[in-house]
Amino acid sequence: MKKLTQGLAMAAAVGFAGVAQAAYIDAVANANAPGAVAEQSVPEDNDYATRAGGTWTADAALYNVGDTVLFGHNLKSTSSDPFKLTFTYLGKEASDNNQFYWNNTLVFDQTNSPDDTFSTVFYGGLDKLLTFSFKNGNNVEVVNDGTNGSQLNIPGEPKSSVNFNLFQVPNEQDYFLISFDDGWSGDDNHDDMVIAVRATKVPEPGTLALLGLGLAGIAVRMKGRKKA
Predict the structure, then answer these.
(1) pLDDT digits (tens, 9 = 90+) for 25-70
(2) Which pLDDT value is given to residue 160?
(3) Locate the Ice-binding protein C-terminal domain: which residues (predicted)?
(4) d(CA 198, CA 172)
(5) Do the Cβ atoms of 98 and 134 come closer than 8 Å?
């Protein structure tokens, strides 16, 4: 029994070495935080925070009324290794056909349903910005770069700001909500389109194979002991 226990421990050590959670993504500030500081607080008329029935997914992470989102921020990689990104469409408040892109490829728009997902592997490297963007119904594009927060629907009209905001899910690592404001900040912002993004480790085929061999060997030994 002692040898069997040692075998299980060795298989676990081989199979799960390096699986401890690591940080893959984080928010970084730029100099383009739009609107007043008060507008960073989630208002009472925010549909995502109050969950209008039938409009939003039922089981996604929430921000609540009064929580603070990050204006003028971007999402960047904090890992030099590739990692998996999973984007989940949580819903929209806006009537405009807002769109979400990854690497200039359309991923989500008003035809999507809550809980639709898209996954990809990010190979960009350490301190690189994630390559996503939004477009609103006026075809104003907001890219995840230092310009986020500087775009306007109407030139010279600050209140027409088009931007996305970030919210780190409490008690979670590598898990953010990206909330798009398609213009005219000061309304029920942070809910015109809401996307969740989670970063996770890319499974290593070699590690998984070793784990499988270790567990298979243990199973054979157990079978032999039963026959004996």
Answers:
(1) 999 999 887 766 767 888 888 889 888 766 788 777 788 888 999 9
(2) 86
(3) 202-222
(4) 10
(5) yes
Q: Is residue 14 classed as helix, strand or coil in its secondary structure?
A: helix
**pLDDT band at residue 99 using 50, 70 and 90 as cut-offs:** very high
What is the spatial distance between Cα 85 and Cα 192, in angstroms, rounded to a whole number?
22
* CA pair distance 29, 185, nearest whole angstrom: 19
Determine whether 180 is exposed, middle or buried from the number of CB atoms within 10 Å of its CB (0-12, 13-18, 19+): buried
Residue 223: strand, helix, or coil:
helix
Interacting residues of 226 by C-beta distance below 8 A, sequence separation 6+: none
Q: Please state whether the predicted TM-score (pTM) of the whole model is above 0.85.
A: no
pLDDT single digits (tens) 72-89: 999 999 999 999 999 999
What are the C-alpha distances in Å from 172 to residues 20, 61, 132, 166, 185?
Answer: 14, 10, 21, 14, 28
If one counts every other C-beta atom within 10 angstroms of the C-beta of residue 184, the result is: 15
